[in-house]
Description:
Shape: elongated
CATH superfamily of the largest domain: Vaccinia Virus protein VP39
CATH class of the largest domain: Alpha Beta
Bound molecules: glutamine
Number of strands: 9
Order of helices and strands: HHHHHEEHEHEHEEHHHHEHEE
Number of domains: 2
Radius of gyration: 21 Å
Amino acid sequence: xxxxxxxxxxxxxxxxxxxxxxxxxxxxxxxxxxxxxxxxxxxxxxxxxxxxxxxxxxxxxxxxxxxxxxxxxxxxxxxxxxxxxxxxxxxxxxxxxxxxxxxxxxxxxxxxxxxxxxxxxxxxxxxxxxxxxxxxxxxxxxxxxxxxxxxxxxxxxxxxxxxxxxxxxxxxxxxxxxxxxxxxxxxxxxxxxxxxxxxxxxxxxxxxxxxxxxxxxxxxxxxxxxxxxxxxxxxxxxxxxxxxxxxxxxxxxxxxxxxxxxxxxxxxxxxxxxxxxxxxxxxxxxx
Length: 287
Ligand code: GLN
């Protein structure tokens, strides 16, 4: 508990927060500053330039945020947003917190489609909508359908599209391809659930256990959803259409084999910033 009477300044509150978070974070002070600046709606730089007084209402809110963070709640959920591709996105516990490796997924798609006018794109499992929204901004008048099985996730995705005045992404509740009828796309892209929950240590589960299971975990060593998408995508691709997927750190060879079996060619693996193969892409050529 914070002793309210002894706290007068933002600095003492930040110290209290940083001290509490030091056992769960490598950057406890930074985290405490982010949380407090967000509550106060000020730029954190002000903590270093101004003397900021804190009301007891803010103190109570900050204390409960620090408590939640201490239990593993991701910062993005606590402040309701996350930066991705240098854009701010609304985030809440019904969607995954965007990860840097997903930027690589998008880079691969942009590389393949940057000179393509109005590509037809299907995103499976859009979550907060980040992939479709970034592609919409980066490509030339793409026609995008973005699906998710979760209504709550699509609500967040639509808010994020609104935030960037994007009106023509077609957001659709669908269990993978279940609501996609007789349509052919130039690109199918997905960051599906691919984590094997049984292999996570308690340490690895910390924090991640507050994100939606449905967005993270898949059966069969994490490969079930990847397998389903790879096996069924070609039905929905035009001749020469591409499939691009994000996968787990140890699933590149598995995806390569499955894509070959499903008839894909020009299969390419890409490594993430930690040099781990993380993205696979392939082209479907009809016989
Ligand atoms: N990259 C995330 C993680 O390893 C998982 C994202 C996903 O399952 N699609 O935590």
